[in-house]
Amino acid sequence: MAVDDLISHLDRSVSPAHSTAHSAGRLREAGFGEIAFDSWGASLPPRGFVRSAGLLLAWCGTGGPFRVVGAHTDSPTLRLKPRPDSGSHGWKQIAVEVYGGILNNSWLDRDLAVAGRLILDDGRTVLVDTEDPVARIPQLAVHLDREVNERGLVLDRQIHLSPVWGLGTSSPGDFLQLLAERADVKSTSISTHDLVMYDTTPARVLADGALLASGRLDNQVSCWAATSAIIDVARSGINENTFVIALFDHEEVGSESTHGAAGPQLDWLLRTLHGADEGSFRDRCAKSLCVSADNAHSVHPNYPERHEPGHRPIANGGPVIKSNANQRYATTAETAAMFEKACVSAGVPYQWFVSKNTMPCGSTIGPITSTRLGIPTVDVGVAQLSMHSAREMCGAHDPDLLVRALTAVGNL
User: Fold this and answer.
1) Three-state secondary structure of the chain
2) Is the pLDDT of residue 223 over 80?
3) What pTM did the predictor assign?
4) Most buried of 88, 308, 384, 393 (most Cβ within 10 A)?
């Protein structure tokens, strides 16, 4: 079942680098060849991929317009600071930095593990995942904060979000020693690291199979769907277009990095695949389509007043087309019509999301990609609740509907 495959992806994609590693494995099994990230060369094979840390680019086909699906591998989380050992009053703690727009309270009283990359002094990169919980952010007991339920919980991100991981006094290198043991390397060989925390509760299907709860639904659902779609297109043998997926890092903090959507990597890939003069490349981009796939807000049954009355997506109602007059989403009338056509051809229902005029709208990689490349873009995504929480929820059937729609986009 598709949802089982998605659950496997969610449980393994505990950091951006783990996400691209898992997607790379799926692509290899489907016959895609991996090209070294630092040696693309002058030409590329008809089917392949490159990756580096939390970035993965894959392609299928060499002719016709580009059909690009963009998503992002990062999620709001707590990142370990370069010197993670801290503590006070007899407790060992971990120094963390808030990454992206987390819901602070959702990280309290959860069993937390650590995952990411260790950079060794010989230049090698090693993935590490404690898998078992190693820390917890304990909430203050209600007995010591009697008005919390009436006043609301107020958290200082510097003081109140420091995870506890043991008793005693922390010494420099203590926590990295634990990670070194899990990664089977010497702690003295660790030069730097790129590590995040995650809730160890596995992804679960709820409500007799109707709902899916997990960490990192935003935006691992789209990463999984994009990878599934390019594999389906490759297996179909229909390559009239050049299908490309771009799984970027750092979307949650603005995308401005070498591995983010504002960086040059997708531009370089498309130019290498095109392999011709600048004028024909511009023409090809103008005839192409980019689908920016990032989850959307489902109508919340407890807060319906926060949603625009005529545009309230519901779980398992199909992919959501996201529109914003102020270009926070890149959707245009023309690109929306193309995505609608793909949905109809795939027999997939679709929905619309528009924010209330009194409610600020978020953004995606869509406007960035469209601006950088001049490729017409549509913003879409699976409807979900609890966005940016440590644990989120969506319809269990929507991810597969998104795969079917994206696969149809590849053959438009």
Assistant:
1) CHHHHHHHHHHHCCCHHHHHHHHHHHHHHCCCEECCCCCCCCCCCCEEEEEECCEEEEEECCCCCEEEEEEECCCCEEEEEEEEEEEECCEEEEEEEEECCCCHHHHCCCCEEEEEEEEECCCCEEEEECCCCCEECCCCCHHHCCCHHHHCCCCCCCCCCCCEEEECCCCCCHHHHHHHHHHCCCHHHEEEEEEEEEECCCCEEEHHHCEEEECCHHHHHHHHHHHHHHHHHHHHCCCCCEEEEEEECCHHHCCCCCCCCCCCHHHHHHHHHHCCCHHHHHHHHHCCEEEEECCEECCCCCCHHHCCCCCCCCCCCCCEEECCCCCCCCCCHHHHHHHHHHHHHHCCCCEEECCCCCCCCCCCCHHHHHHHHCCCEEEEECEEECCCCCCEEEECCHHHHHHHHHHHHHCC
2) yes
3) 0.97
4) 384
Q: Which two tokens stand for residue 71?
A: 């998503």
Packed helices 16-29 and 217-236: angle between N→C axes, nearest 10 degrees: 20
Q: Is the peptide bond before 149 cis (omega within 30 degrees of 0)?
A: no
pLDDT grade, residue 63 (50/70/90)? confident
Q: Residue 143: what residue type? A: H
Q: Which CATH class is domain 2-75+215-410?
A: alpha beta
277, burial (CB in 10 Å: exposed 0-12, middle 13-18, buried 19+):
exposed
Decide yes or no: CATH 2.30.250.10 for domain 77-199: yes
Report the residue count for the chain.
Answer: 412
Spatial strand order in the sheet of 47-52: 33-34, 47-52, 55-60, 242-248, 66-72, 289-293, 377-381, 320-322, 351-353
Note whether 86 and 162 are within 8 A (CB). Answer: yes
Asked whether the predicted pLDDT for residue 278 surpasses 90, the reply is: no
